[in-house]
Amino acid sequence: MPLWLAEPRTADSGVTYDFGLPTRGLGSTRLSDLTCVVFDTETTGLEPSDRIVQIAGLRLVRGRRTGERFETLVDPGRPIPPASTKIHGIDDAAVSGAPTLSQALMAFHHFCDDAVLIAHNAPFDMGFLRRAQPEAGLQFDNRVLDTVLLSAMIWGQSAVHSLDALSERLGIVIPPEARHTAMGDTIATAEAFLRLIPALEAKGIVTFEDAVAEGRRHRRLIGDANLPG
User: Fold this and answer.
1) CATH of 21-212, one of 3.20.20.370, 3.30.420.10, 1.25.40.10, 3.20.19.10
2) Kind of pairing between the strands at 52-61 and 64-73
3) Neighbour tally for 137: CB within 10 Å
4) For a FRET experiment, which of 13, 16, 43, 50 has its CA 20 to 30 Å from that of 91?
5) For the whole model, what pTM was predicted?
């Protein structure tokens, strides 16, 4: 079954993939050199037993959006509660005939390859990916960065670190119709990450390892998505 991958929207990214980019920072773990996939999921609910109904991702290389994007609806194999549909707008009719979870995650796994995964509240999204690993027959062992933690490194734990609050602080506008869609939230998270890099570097947080080490100081706020479980 072919995946429902979104058609490229050049008006959105305006960037053509630069095949020279991946080799320029090869071996470097500087945040500004990383090859990343920023992603988001929409689900049937917030419990560990819930299922993914949509997943989207954008590739970043050396601080630039490449124009590569992934987006698909997912048939969760169960009814989508009306309360969840009210948030993300996805109902049973929308996912009828969509790829199964295994099919969608196999394609997304290929899209991610060995990139660093970035999400807002990464333990939530990574939890859904990892719980689906046995069903999909694959493993998401990518390194992970969380924009909630990166935000806390700049503004402290007492600040509000929701995606809306972070976007407002960074001057990112999320169209109302795009909020709580996998791609809409992915675009906002990608923009947030790119705008956070200079502020992090100014505080001496320059590499992936620096970010992970600093993130351990904020475990009371949110868990470390690089740890299993």
Assistant:
1) 3.30.420.10
2) antiparallel
3) 11
4) 13
5) 0.87
